[in-house]
Design brief:
CATH topology of the largest domain: Rossmann fold
Distance between the termini: 57 Å
Helix content: 25-40%
Strand content: 25-35%
CATH architecture of the largest domain: 3-Layer(aba) Sandwich
Low-confidence stretches: 1-29
Shape: globular
CATH class of the largest domain: Alpha Beta
């Protein structure tokens, strides 16, 4: 565990508690900066000491008189240092005089808007400056779940609505002259169009990440040092420094491959919001007149870079790159180009790792999960109206009166029924075998209007022991959407770690790479390995390990890199072959990580295997084809259709 530096210990121990008001409040001055740091430690601190580490980074910087950092600590069951008292909310000031504890408050949830408001008011009244930044430090969950998950209060978090409530109670919102210079999220998943909308009349700039962040987070010693060296910089310049420092910090600990961070000029966001609404209105109008559009739009979302996992194994954040989904629908929705143009105008700068290279700086909501409750959460928090109505129609097949009034303004009077797999009778759809042994599913042209996606599940069969083992899912198929003909491309291989076969689940279909999730126990704890297949290099790589999305919607911020000596236990899903019972997870083989540990495809061992095509619609329904069996005997693979 990390400990506070001797410097910090000496500073804090030597300084007595200064009550707010015991000394005159400083006044803002030209060229001065104040950073208000909302440091909700959560399990990142109690289990890993990561907040302590970032405090240490801050204290490496000697601040000039015109730069002040005001910090509120809380939200963690235990702090990995001998200074911070986790039973209280504590307020520290770090300035040219060093670190001072200036105020304490009774424990309260840092996921509550009142707690945030009280800190912001305290900081503004006592430590104003010419330019002000507010930085959130914690987990993030995207547009629906927000950020600042408090470990002490059942991981209560601040929604975007609660953030706006707190900020607007302290500062007067003004789109022409926003009161804050910068709002930043050193958290996961908060670079969303909905976050930008929330702060567009409160802050000039937004700095946040589309993807989950690794626990190393922002590189405080670098970006705060840059601010100390040049306090004349504005929020755009500071945001760029934060991005570059963050990426350099990720490179130093080898977590850069999936890193994202962007700077958005919120004074230019209105054009994007207008384009986003028009884009959604065009999609809604198209869907209302031709429900088959929903399936095609869903396939565009499936082929777009998405963030935080979005699989059954990892959970769902339902966040997708906004520019990517516009780019994938530009041939059918003329408003897509306006979205791309507006993004280019307002996203001033971004850094992207090799396996997040398609991101455009801001994400938006898309219902990958098909969960109506999650959609209702988005409806409460999201920007605009069109996409809310689009997804409500997609998942429920209907709109409320407000929705009907909205589409009437688009010149649409009635809604066509949404067709789904439940009405198609495609369960156990027959497969045909080609002369060379490949299985083909023929559904006809209707598939283009019904299916949001198609893939396959692969099983190992042990009829003697009445066992059926699920190896995972993939999309290595040939798809003819115009005619509705789908063929497998099975090569008799599957993913493995050091020769140990694993369960693997496709999580993202990229243009240059696919991402997969592999459930394991890492030193006894449940994780998902993040594995990438790079089409250009034709190589597999293990990016690291993350835990899944929590019940609260919290995304795991720690990207755990494998190191020699770690123990990995593979996890499989097993069912009875004869009864077809639900699959249950069980632990399989345990291997020890070495410096040469690698992920690669290997030939399946001799035995009987079963492939089933899985069809998915835009409402989250699934249907499964007839099975095709493979008998592997050395290099020979014999194929047959299961009746």
């Amino acid at each position: 565990m990390k400990r506070l530096s001797a410097l910090l210990l000496a500073l804090v121990m030597a300084l007595s508690l200064t009550a707010c008001g015991d000394e005159p409040a400083p006044s803002g001055e030209d060229g001065s900066w104040a950073v208000y740091w909302y440091l909700c430690g959560s399990d990142l601190e109690s289990e890993g000491g990561f907040a302590t580490g970032d405090l240490n980074e801050l204290l490496e910087v000697a601040l000039p008189e015109n730069v002040t950092v005001v910090i509120e600590t809380g939200g963690a069951a235990q702090w990995q240092n001998e200074v911070i008292d986790g039973s209280l909310l504590q307020r520290y000031v770090y300035d040219s005089e060093g670190l001072t504890l200036v105020d304490e408050q009774p424990s309260a949830s840092m996921g509550d808007s009142e707690t945030l408001e009280e800190f912001l008011r305290f900081a503004r009244e006592n430590y104003p400056a010419d330019r002000t930044a507010v930085v959130f430090w914690n987990h993030g969950g995207g547009s629906v779940s927000g950020a600042s998950f408090d470990e002490l209060y059942d991981y209560d978090s601040l929604t975007l609505g609660e953030m706006y409530e707190a900020f607007s109670a302290v500062w007067e919102p003004d789109t022409e002259a926003p009161p804050l210079e910068l709002v930043g999220f050193d958290t996961c998943l908060m670079a969303t169009v909905d976050t930008a909308y929330t702060f567009c009349d409160l802050s000039h700039y937004l700095v946040a990440s589309e993807e989950t962040e690794p626990a190393n987070g922002w590189y405080y010693s670098q970006w705060v040092q840059a601010l100390a060296d040049d306090p004349s910089m504005d929020g755009a310049a500071l945001g760029k420094v934060i991005c570059d420092a963050y990426y350099e910090g990720c490179q130093a600990v080898e977590t850069q491959d999936s890193a994202t961070l962007s700077v958005t000029d919120l004074t230019k966001i209105q054009d994007l919001l207008d384009a986003y609404e028009e884009f959604g209105a065009q999609a809604l109008s198209a869907a209302a007149q031709d429900p088959g559009f929903l399936s095609r739009f869903s396939r565009a979302a499936a082929g777009t870079e998405n963030y935080g996992g979005n699989t059954r194994e990892q959970g769902y954040t339902n966040m997708v790159d906004l520019g990517g989904i516009a780019r994938h629908t530009a041939d059918t929705l003329p408003g897509a180009q306006a979205v791309l143009d507006a993004l280019d105008e307002c996203v001033l700068y971004q850094v992207n790792g090799k396996y997040r290279s398609e991101g455009t700086g801001l994400s938006c909501y898309y219902s990958y999960s098909g969960d109506v409750d999650d959609l209702n959460g988005y409806i409460q928090q999201g920007a605009g109206a069109a996409f809310k109505y689009l997804y409500a129609y997609q998942l429920t097949g209907q709109l409320d009166q407000d929705g009907m009034d909205y589409i009437a303004q688009l010149g649409v009077d009635t809604l066509a029924p949404v067709e789904s797999l439940s009405t198609m009778g495609w369960s156990n759809a027959p497969l045909a075998l080609s002369d060379d042994g490949y299985a083909t599913l023929t559904l006809g042209p209707e598939a283009d209007s019904i299916l949001a996606g198609i893939g396959f599940s692969l099983y190992w069969l042990d009829e003697e022991n009445d066992a059926m083992l699920l190896l995972g899912t993939d999309n290595d198929m040939t798809c003819d959407w115009e005619n509705g003909v789908f063929s497998d491309n099975f090569r008799g291989v599957w993913g493995s770690i050091d020769g140990h076969l694993v369960y693997m689940e496709l999580s993202s279909e990229g243009e240059d790479y696919n991402l997969y999730s592999v459930p394991v126990l890492l030193n006894g704890e449940a994780y998902n390995l993040q594995v990438v297949y790079d089409f250009t290099d034709e190589e597999w790589r293990i990016l690291g390990a993350r835990q899944g999305i929590g019940d609260s919607g919290m995304a795991d911020k720690e990207l755990r890199l494998l190191k020699p000596g770690d123990e990995i236990t593979t996890v499989w899903y097993l069912s009875d072959w004869s009864e077809g019972s639900d699959f249950e997870a069980y632990e399989s083989e345990t291997l020890t990580v070495t410096a040469d540990t690698a992920f690669y495809e290997q030939a399946l061992p001799d035995g009987e295997y079963l492939m089933i095509f899985e069809m998915r619609d835009s409402q989250g329904n699934s249907a499964y084809s007839q099975g095709v069996g493979f008998t592997v005997d050395g290099e020979d693979i014999t194929t047959s259709v299961y009746e």
